[in-house]
Amino acid sequence: MSLDGEAADLGRVVVIGVGNPFRGDDGAGVEAARLLRGRLPNGVEVMEQDGEPAGLLDAWHDARIAYVIDAVRADGLVGEIHRVQIDRTAGTTLPASPRRDSSHALGLGDAVELARILDRLPGRLVLLGIAGAHFEAGDALSNRVHAAVEQLVEALVEEVSAACA
Question: Which of 21, 25, 55, 118 is 20 to 30 A off residue 102, Cα-Cα?
Fold first, then answer.
């Protein structure tokens, strides 16, 4: 088997940083993606997205594993990291939320459910949310969120490298 064939058998691995770097803690996912560039194995795609569902579906479609990093408004400590893993065959769903915490008409949970309906989920989708507090235009990442981004980046370098070995 050629090297190209071997790489194709392994499947795509993508890391998607979601957010707006000009809205405080909402930029956590984008900052993580920027810090991950050049630190992951060859062939791992690292991208930045604004969170619109169509863009996410295109970014993770046909991936073996997709990691999506985004800031969340969550109860708990600012900087706390939340992880949800969705396997295409397991039927895992995101917890329902009565309020929309996205700055978009549709949020990440909507994108996941739309992908499920359209059969465009990756083999494994790992959602990593970093709890933020400041989402106003012009704010910088808060110190706790910045520290969480750095912690998450270190953990992802190890996890993604192991998944690609």
Answer: 118
